């Protein structure tokens, strides 16, 4: 075994991402993002962006494993819900978390650079996207992921299930 393969196995052990993803949990995490984003827009305090950005970073790295919000949702809230859970592919959800990280970290950087207006705009966009996910199960990041697959910028090997276009609906949710 090479050191590279040993290292990647170790990395995958610490930073796995669930596949499939419980859509109920994803929607509840999105609702938590809405609450955090609205809190920032109301309070207009930069420090509110820290847990928001950290949560996205944690979820990009390994889903709910290191995310306080993800842990709360997957261990406390979702198990108590008496609904039929739907499972969707993980790679588009990870991609969507990456976009959320870009928006939240971008808002934090804009604030630090003296552009609070840009911070408000980025978080308002994030709140809009998270609202679509939490209320209507419309994942904009997943839709972008699927379009990037369709044009060949993301290889089919990243998500074989996503590459099966016969199973996709017009509204892409994962």
Structural class: mainly alpha
Large-scale geometry: globular
> Quaternary arrangement of the chains shown?
single chain
Q: Flag low-confidence runs.
A: 1-8, 168-174
Largest sheet: 2 strands, antiparallel
Strand content: under 5%
Give the ordered list of helices and strands.
HEHHHEHHHH
Mean pLDDT: 88
Provide the helix percentage.
55-70%
Characterise this structure.
It is a single chain. The chain is mainly alpha-helical. It has a domain at about 20-135. It is about 65% helix and about 0% strand. It has a two-stranded antiparallel sheet with strand order 1-2. Mean pLDDT is about 90; it is low at about 1-10 and about 170-174.
Keywords:
single chain; 174 residues; mainly alpha; two-stranded antiparallel ribbon; 8 helices; 2% strand; disordered N terminus; disordered C terminus
Summarize the structure.
This protein is mainly α and 174 residues long. It has helices at 3-14, 23-43, 49-62, 68-77, 90-112, 116-136, 140-150, 160-163; strands at residues 21-22, 87-88. It has a two-stranded antiparallel ribbon with strand order 1-2.
What is this structure's SSE topology?
Elements lengths: L2 H12 L6 E2 H21 L5 H14 L5 H10 L9 E2 L1 H23 L3 H21 L3 H11 L9 H4 L11
């Amino acid at each position: 075994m090479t050191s590279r393969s040993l290292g990647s196995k170790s990395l995958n052990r610490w930073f796995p991402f669930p596949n499939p993803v419980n859509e109920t949990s994803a929607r509840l995490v999105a609702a938590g993002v809405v609450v955090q984003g609205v809190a920032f827009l109301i309070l207009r305090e930069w420090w509110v962006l820290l847990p928001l950005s950290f949560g996205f970073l944690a979820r990009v790295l390994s889903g709910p494993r290191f995310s306080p919000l993800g842990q709360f949702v997957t261990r406390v809230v979702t198990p108590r819900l008496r609904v039929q859970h739907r499972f969707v592919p993980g790679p588009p959800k990870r991609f969507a978390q990456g976009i959320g990280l870009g928006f939240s970290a971008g808002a934090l950087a804009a604030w630090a650079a003296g552009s609070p207006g840009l911070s408000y705009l980025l978080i308002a966009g994030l709140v809009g996207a998270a609202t679509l996910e939490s209320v209507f199960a419309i994942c904009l990041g997943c839709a972008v992921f699927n379009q990037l697959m369709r044009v060949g910028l993301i290889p089919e090997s990243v998500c074989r299930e996503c590459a099966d276009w016969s199973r996709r609906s017009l509204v892409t949710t994962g």
